[in-house]
Amino acid sequence: MTSEAFYNNEKWWTKNQAGEAILKVENIPISHIGTDPAQAEDMANRKVALPSNLGITDNRFGFALKYLVENTVNLIYSEHNPPLSDADRKRMDGNMPNEIQAELAYKVRPLNGVWATPPYLHNGSVPTIDDLLGDPEKRPTKFYLGSREYDPVKLGYKADPITNGFEFDTSIRGNSNRGHEFRKDFSKEKEIKGVIGPELSADDRKALIEYLKTL
Q1: Considering only CA atoms, which of 109, 108, 141, 114 is closest in space to residue 125?
Q2: CA dist list (Å): 28 to 16, 190, 193
Q3: What letters, b where the CB count within 10 A reaches 16 and e where it falls short, cover 110-121?
Q4: Most CB contacts within 10 A, which of 104, 106, 149, 163?
Q5: pLDDT at position 10, please?
Q6: pTM, whole model, 2 decimals?
Q7: In angstroms, rounded to a whole number, what is the distance separating the alpha carbons of residues 196 and 186?
């Protein structure tokens, strides 16, 4: 993508502390996207035991991780020979603040190479992109993982029963395949949990799939 309009779009780009352009990667609240909340809830509610010598008092997992990473990085910087300047430290940090967090949300990722990363949704509960874009009521409730035979039509690995494969069951907590749905009852005026777009025709799904293959 080399379009000037793309790189000047404020919805997609922001700047770091050095004024360099960086891509915005949003956290989408579970209340909007409607996907399985277990992973985010467990991460937000998880507490950890902290040795006193770490000097970290916040035992919430996300925040404890934040300070542990920051302390580790600062220790490495302080032992560097020759000593690092403040400017060097900021540059090596990408001129970005430490913002590790644990929200009830899931991060939006760029779609480059998404065709090669099945299964889909944050918990891997939907085997193909065609299943993800189609009728959510018809998403497979059980499928097998372990195959490396790729389906270039639906974009995903073959999910038929295989010897020594693992059966993924979407009825188990944390494995729900709902949310991120394209349905007839989509409305721009009224948000419906988990419905992010209107129902897609077979031709529309095919066109999107062919486009995603190019990324």
Answers
A1: 141
A2: 21, 17, 12
A3: eeeeebeebbbb
A4: 106
A5: 81
A6: 0.82
A7: 7
60 beta partners: 47
Which stretch of DSSP H or E encloses residue 209? Answer: helix 202-212
Residue 50: Cβ within 10 Å count: 15
What's the pLDDT at 176?
Answer: 97
| 13 close to 4: Cβ distance less than 8 angstroms | no
Strands 156-157 and 150-151: antiparallel
**Is the confidence at residue 164, as pLDDT, over 80?**
yes
Q: What is the pLDDT of residue 189?
A: 79
Residue that is written with structure tokens 């998403």 in the block: 139
CA distances for 26 relative to 35, 70, 105, 108, angstroms: 16, 22, 9, 5
Distance CA 204, CA 213 (A): 14
Centre a 10 Å sphere on the Cβ of residue 204 and count the other Cβ atoms it contains. 13
